[in-house]
Every structure is written in structure tokens, then in C-alpha cells.
Design brief:
388 residues; Rossmann fold; 2 domains; 5-stranded parallel sheet; 4-stranded parallel sheet; transport; Branched-chain amino acid transport system substrate-binding protein; Leu-bd; BCAA_transport
Length: 388
């Protein structure tokens, strides 16, 4: 973990100090969970941002300085780090963090201090400041992803579904999205079972869920912790369909779940199966370029669904920062932050690895169905399913 932190910090050291006559440098504050229970997401996030830096590390010939901090998967530290980056380090922009509770804490601080931010974990919309929104996000809305699952359930004649997920903001997002989409599809949600990210057993929750005899089970856990219900369902010889989520697209999940993961259907971003996308899909070329940059800086190809969010957050920022600089505002000033915020929320049809982004102040649907595919896990690999 320290290796990736040093990689990013060493990149910052390459940028010359601002001196008389030189233009002010753009400084970005990046928070992620390099330790703690969400590190299985936070470490890939950091690797993805490093790939973004390799792919696009300067604006008009000037490098961008990055200050990276580890929030140890603790929302209170996410808040403290964000405040430090803004008040002490005077960053122009924030990117982060891993985990919904941590990202919400960071986003609330960004709004309070009026610093533009791109969130790389899915969260509910954060209340805007008096001048409008300050926080955009690259992960697909949970409702968009879950709608793909429910569409598949309906096509498969599923009538009842049980939910087993985290007892936190992410679990709430998944469950609420399921209830809304399932209700519209006349599918009954018959159980809502929760567990903590640090729990080591979900046997009781699975027993209660299975006792309702659901046609399908949807899992609202991520990373290695997301494997617990999968293993418990196999132990109980559950024969119904199992649906996962984008947070289970990782080698850590596959390693822990093993053969029990076979057949699970998950919604995810197109980057997961980039080479399986048709040539006509504009996301394909960007996703393949991300993979090349990732392998160059990390020594191996990506094998998760989280690093691409760090990459997309970075390249979306760079695209907006180019337009903000054209306004004439100088970095490290409130005027530049406002110009950068305006540029972000005027982003139109920007192609990333996870989708095509349209950040609009009055539109929470910043991506559409182009940002979602369904995959089936087969023998430790992800297979693209054909459109319904």
C-alpha cells in the first residue's frame, strides 16, 4: 500500500515550486482508503488515479501536483483530511474516496468549503451550496445499475427477491433502489437482511432470507465482504438466482468466493469487459487505453471494477481544468475554484471508461444506459451478457 502512496507523492515532487513570474500550479487533493475495511476498494482507486496521471498528467505543458492522504476507511478522517487539504494545502480540487460513508463525509466538507470535487464512490446526491452543486460523481447511479438487475429478473420470471447487504449507506442505496425498481416490475422484495463490513459470518441473515423461499437473492455487499453471503448461500444449497453489484467486480471477491460465485449476474461499467464491447462503442477505445496506462504504471493489467473510477475521475477533472484555465483565473484562488466548478458542470458527452458523462447542475442522471452492462461470473471471469 505504501508503494502506491509514494508513487503519487513522488509525481508531485516533480513539479517545480512556484516562483516569481511563474504561473501558479494546479493542486489536487486525493483521499482514498489505503488501509482499513474499505482498502480493497481504496487501493485500486489509487492505482486507477495513477494510471490517469500516466495517461494525462499535465495541462498546457504544466504538470499537476497531487497530495494524497489515506483516510483509513474512517469517515471522520475523510472529513479531517478534506479540511486539511483545503484549509492548509489550498488545493484547487478534491477527488475521493473509497466507500459511501467516507465519500459523503468528504463531499459535505467540499460543499461547505466551496471546493469542486469528483466522487469516485456512489453516493446519494449531496445538498448543494448556496451557489449550486460542488460535487459531481463518476460511479453510475445505483438506481441505474439496479434497474439492469431488475430488468433481468423480470425477463427471467422472478417474482420474489430477498436482499442481503451492508448495514450502511451503500446497503441503503442498493436496497432502496431495489425496492423502487422491483415495485414497478411487480417483483416483491421479501427480505431485508443487513451485516457489517467487518463481520465474519452472515449465516443468520442468510437463513432468514432463504426461509422466505425467494426466487432470487440480491447481494448489497462489496469486495471481500461481499463474498460472505455468496459462500453462505452455497452452504445452504440455495438453488435460486443470485444477483450481485458492481462492487463485487474484483479479484479479491473472486478469490474469496471461488466457485460459489459461478452464475452470479452483476451490473457493471463497460470497462470490465472492454475487449468484448463492439468496435462501434466509443467507450471501448478509452477503456483499452486505460488498461494500457494502468499496466504501464502498476506492472500488471487491472483486475477490478474500482480503479477505473479513479481513472475517470482524473481525466474528467483534467478536461474541466483545461477549460477553467482558459477563463484566465489563476489556480490556488477562489476564482479558479469557481471556474473549475462551472467547467465541471458544463461537461457534455465526455467519454470515459465507465460511461459517457454529462454533468449538469439540474440533472442527477450524469450517465445513461451506455454506462451499464450485465455480466455473468463464469469460472473466475466476467462474461458480457447480450442486451435484453
Amino acid at each position: 500500500m505504501k508503494r502506491y502512496q509514494k508513487l503519487l507523492l513522488s509525481a508531485a515532487m516533480l513539479v517545480p515550486l512556484v516562483c516569481g513570474g511563474a504561473r501558479a500550479e494546479i493542486v489536487v487533493g486525493f483521499i482514498t482508503g489505503l488501509s482499513g475495511p474499505v482498502s480493497s476498494i481504496g487501493i485500486p482507486n489509487a492505482k486507477g488515479l495513477q494510471a490517469g496521471l500516466e495517461y494525462q498528467g499535465e495541462i498546457d505543458g504544466e504538470k499537476i501536483r497531487i497530495i494524497q492522504l489515506d483516510d483509513t476507511s474512517d469517515p471522520s478522517i475523510s472529513t479531517r483530511n478534506a479540511r486539511k487539504l483545503v484549509e492548509q494545502d489550498q488545493v484547487d480540487f478534491l477527488i475521493g474516496t473509497s466507500g459511501a460513508p467516507q465519500t459523503v463525509a468528504m463531499a459535505v466538507t467540499a460543499v461547505e468549503l466551496q471546493v469542486p470535487m469528483i466522487a469516485i464512490s456512489p453516493i446519494s446526491p449531496v445538498a448543494p451550496g448556496k451557489d449550486g452543486p460542488w460535487v459531481a460523481q463518476v460511479p453510475q447511479p445505483t438506481s441505474l445499475l439496479v434497474q439492469g438487475i431488475v430488468d433481468h429478473m423480470k425477463a427471467s420470471n422472478v417474482k420474489t427477491v430477498a436482499f442481503i447487504g451492508f448495514s450502511d449507506a451503500f446497503g441503503d442505496l442498493m436496497y432502496n433502489s431495489l425496492v423502487q425498481a422491483a415495485g414497478a416490475a411487480n417483483i416483491k422484495v421479501v427480505a431485508d437482511e443487513r451485516y457489517g463490513r467487518a463481520d465474519t459470518s452472515v449465516t443468520a441473515q442468510v437463513l432468514r432470507a432463504v426461509s422466505t423461499r425467494p426466487d432470487a437473492v440480491m447481494i448489497g455487499g462489496t469486495g471481500t465482504s461481499g463474498a460472505l453471503p455468496v459462500l453462505a448461500l452455497k452452504d445452504r444449497a440455495y438453488k435460486g438466482a443470485v444477483y450481485g453489484n458492481h462492487g463485487m467486480i474484483s479479484t479479491d471477491f473472486l478469490r474469496i468466493a471461488g466457485s460459489a460465485a459461478n452464475g452470479i449476474i452483476c451490473p457493471t461499467g463497460p470497462v470490465t469487459v472492454a475487449e468484448q464491447l463492439p468496435e462501434s462503442n466509443p467507450i471501448r477505445s478509452v477503456a483499452l487505453a486505460y488498461r494500457a496506462a494502468y499496466e504501464k504504471v502498476n506492472g500488471a493489467p487491472p483486475s477490478d471494477g474500482f480503479s477505473a473510477y479513479g481513472f475517470d475521475g482524473w481525466i474528467a477533472f483534467v478536461d474541466a481544468a483545461k477549460r477553467a484555465k482558459a477563463s484566465g483565473a489563476q489556480p490556488r484562488t477562489p476564482e479558479f475554484r469557481k471556474a473549475l466548478r462551472e467547467a465541471i458542470f458544463n461537461t457534455r458527452e465526455f467519454v470515459g471508461t465507465q460511461g459517457i458523462y454529462n454533468f449538469k447542475p439540474d440533472n442527477l442522471n450524469w450517465v445513461d444506459e451506455r454506462a451499464r452492462v450485465l455480466i455473468r461470473i463464469e469460472d473466475g471471469k466476467w462474461k458480457l451478457l447480450p442486451p435484453l
